[in-house]
Amino acid sequence: MPGEARIIIAGAGFGGLAATRILARAHQKVTLVDQANYHLFQPLLYQVATAGLAATEIAIPVRSIFRRYPWVEARMDTVVGVELDAKRLLLSGGYLEFDFLILALGAVTNYFDHPEWEAYALSLKSLEDAIEIRSRILSALEKAEYEKDAAKRAALLTIVIVGGGATGVEMAGAVAELTRHALRGEFRHIDPARTRIVLLEAGPRILPTLPPDLSSKAQEFLQQLGVEVRLRSPVTALGEGWIEIGAQRIAAGTILWTAGVKANPLGKAFGLPVEPNGRVLVNPDLSVPGYPYLFVIGDLAAVRDASGKLIPQVAPAAIQMGEHAARTILAELEEKNTLRKPFRYIDKGTLATVGRSMAVAKIGWIQCAGWIAWILWLFVHLIKLIGFHNKALVLFEWTWSYLTFRKGARVILRYHRPSRADSAGKAS
Amino acid sequence: MPGEARIIIAGAGFGGLAATRILARAHQKVTLVDQANYHLFQPLLYQVATAGLAATEIAIPVRSIFRRYPWVEARMDTVVGVELDAKRLLLSGGYLEFDFLILALGAVTNYFDHPEWEAYALSLKSLEDAIEIRSRILSALEKAEYEKDAAKRAALLTIVIVGGGATGVEMAGAVAELTRHALRGEFRHIDPARTRIVLLEAGPRILPTLPPDLSSKAQEFLQQLGVEVRLRSPVTALGEGWIEIGAQRIAAGTILWTAGVKANPLGKAFGLPVEPNGRVLVNPDLSVPGYPYLFVIGDLAAVRDASGKLIPQVAPAAIQMGEHAARTILAELEEKNTLRKPFRYIDKGTLATVGRSMAVAKIGWIQCAGWIAWILWLFVHLIKLIGFHNKALVLFEWTWSYLTFRKGARVILRYHRPSRADSAGKAS
C-alpha cells in the first residue's frame, strides 16, 4: 500500500527524475510536476541541433517512465510559486498541498550582464531551442547557396559558438561533422565543408573543468576538424549577424551561446535564500534552512563540498542530490526523529566528445583521449538514456551515421506556423 | 555530359520528385524548387500527428535525394509568380529562366465556403500541422487529467474529425489506437481509452472512392475501435471548442479537418486558365494551352480520363503525371518535332488502414479487407518511402509499436518559442 505522505517534486530533469524513482520504488505517493510532458536527455540536445538525432529520440514522456507505479502522478503544469508555511505549491492550473517538496527547477541560459544578447545568440536548453538552431544552421547554408554577394555568403557560412565548455565543444565538433561530411556532394554553388566554425572561449583553455592536457587534446581534435578555437576571447558586443571580441568583428550568420547557465530565477522569486548567483542556499541535507520539508536539488541548489567549493551544475550531481533528498524523506517517513545525513558529492568524472573517434575522458584518476574515450562516451550516453525505444533509435542513428557519414534529421521546421500565403512552392 | 536545356520543377511533392528523377537519370539540368528543404511523405503524416512516427522520419532532404546527380539543383525558395512569355519563374529570392517549367504546387486544405473555420479546425497538410495536432491531442488529455468540471473534461476528451476520406479514416483509427492502447496505465484521474472520437462524413458512406462493401468494412473496423462514425452529417457551424451538425452541437477539445483539398490557388493567381475548383486546365499532354513549355501536374492539374471524369488528387496520379511530363520534355529534347503523347492515368488502386490488422484495399479487380490488406498497406508504404535511413526507422517504429502497443513520439512541442518567463517547472 502506498504511503500517505504527499510528496511533490517540481521539475522532471535528472534530479527530479532520480528522486521520483527512489520514492516510486518505495511505494510513496509522488506528484512530479513539469511544464513539459517529457524528460529531456539534455546531454544529447546538441545532436538534435546538428541534425544527428530527431527531437523525439531524446524526449521520453514522463507518464510513460512511471506508468508501472500507479502511486506516481505526472502533472504537466507550470510552477508559479510556493507558499512555504501553508505548504502549497502554486501552479498555473491550481495548487498542490504537500508534506514534502523537492524543488528541481534547474538552470537557464546565462547571458551574464547582457540579457539583450539572447535575441541574437541562440541558447541550447530546450527541444524548441535545438529545433530552432538546426533550422538556422541549415537555412544559412540554403541561403548561402544562392547568395551572389561574396561577403554576405561568407557571413552565412560562418558559425560562431560562444563558450568552450562541454556543450560548446560538442556543438562545434558536431557542426564540423555536419558541414565537412554529412552534406558532401549536396550543394552546387558552395562547399559546405568550407563553413567557418569559430569557438570562442573567454578563459585560457577549453573544457576548464578537465586537466589541462585533456583540454589541449580536445582543442587539437577540434582543430583537426577545422574548428577555429580562440582562447582568451571574451565577447564584448554582439548583434544581428555580428559578434565582437574587442576591436575585432566577425560577421556570422549563426551565433550560438553556450557560455554558461545560471540557476532558475524562480528560486529567488519564491523568496528562498539565494547566493548572488541565484542558487538556493541549503543545509548539508539539501533542505532549505527553517523548512525541513523543503529540499532544493540540482542546478538550482548551492551545495558546497568539504573544501567549500560549489558543486558543479552537472547531471550526475543533480541525480545524486535527487537520490539523497528522496532517501532523507524516506528515512523520515519510516522512522521518525532520525538524524539527517549530509549530502556528499561523488565526482564520477567528465566526458566530452568532439567527433568520430575523438573524445576526452577523466574518470577517477583515469584519463584518456581519442578512440577509447569516444567508445566510453557512446556507451555511457546510451545506457543513461531512458527506455528501450529511445536507446534502439539512438543506436541505429549513430551506427548509420558512423557507416555513412550522414545525418538523418536535416529538416528545417518553420517555427511560427506559416500562413497559407506562404504555401507556394510546396506540393502535396 | 548534361543537357543544355534549363528545366525547372516547382514543388518537391510526389509529382515534382517523379519528374525530377526521370530527368536526372537522363542527365538533364534540372532545378527543383520547394519552399521546404525536404520531400514530405504525406501518406504517413497522420502517424506523426498521432505520435507514431517522428517528424524527421517522413521528411527526406531534397538535396540528399539527388546528391548523386550533380546536374540537379535543389533550391529552397518560395514561388511567387511566373512570367509566361519571358519564361521566368519568380521566387522570393530572385528569378530563374527556363526552357521548360513543370508546375507541381499541389493542393491546400479546402474549408469550402468557410475559410474562417481554419482557425478552429486544424488541417493536416504540413509537418508543422502534424506537430501541432500531436501537441493539441496530447495537451487535451493532460488538461483533462486535472479538469474538475465534468462537462469541460468530457469536451477535452472529445476529438472530432471532419471528413471520411482516407486521411480522416486513418486519422480516426490512429487516434483510437493512441487513446485505447498506447496510453494505457499512464493517467490517474481519467481513462484515455474513453476518449470520444467522432468521424463526421457529409456523404452517405466513408471512403467514397472505394466500393460500398469496403466502405462498410472500414466503418465496421472503426466502430470496433470505438470510433463514432456519423454519415450524412455535414458540418453547419464550428468555433473554438464546438462543432454543429444542424441542430446538434458537440463540445470538442480537438477538431481536425480532413474534409477535402483544393488546388493551390497560385495556379489562378499566376493567370493560368483554371476550372472553377482552381485546378489548371491542361492539354492532353499536360501542357498549358498556348504554352507548350509549361506543364502542370499533380493536384494542381485538371486532367480528365477518357470518360471525362477528373483524375483524383492522389499521389499515384501525381507521380504518373510527373513522369509523363518529364518524358515529353526528354522526347522533345532528343528529337525535335515529335508528336506529344497524351497522358493516360492508370488507377493502381486504393489502400486505407484503420488500425492493427485492419485495412481495406482495392487493387485492380482484387478487393480485400482485414489482415491481408493491412500487410499490403504496410508493405506498399514502406517501399514507397524514400531512403534506407527512413525505411529502417519507420520499420523499427512499426515493429516496436506492434509488439508493445506503444507510440514513441509523444512529445508536446511549444510551437511559438516560449519566453524565459515560461520556463518555470522545467528542470535542466
TrEMBL record, chains A, B:
This enzyme's EC code(s): 1.6.99.3
Cofactor(s) needed: FAD
MF term (GO), any: NAD(P)H dehydrogenase (quinone) activity
Keywords for the protein's UniProt record, in alphabetical order: FAD, Flavoprotein, Membrane, Oxidoreductase, Transmembrane, Transmembrane helix
Lineage top rank: taxon: Bacteria
Residues spanning the membrane: 7-24, 44-66, 363-380
Entry's Gene Ontology BP terms: aerobic electron transport chain
External alternative NADH-ubiquinone oxidoreductase-like C-terminal domain ranges (all copies): 348-406
Domain FAD/NAD(P)-binding: 6-322
Database matches in PANTHER family: 64 KDA MITOCHONDRIAL NADH DEHYDROGENASE (EUROFUNG), APOPTOSIS-INDUCING FACTOR 1
Family indicated by similarity: Belongs to the NADH dehydrogenase family.
Protein name: NADH dehydrogenase
Native species: Candidatus Methylacidithermus pantelleriae
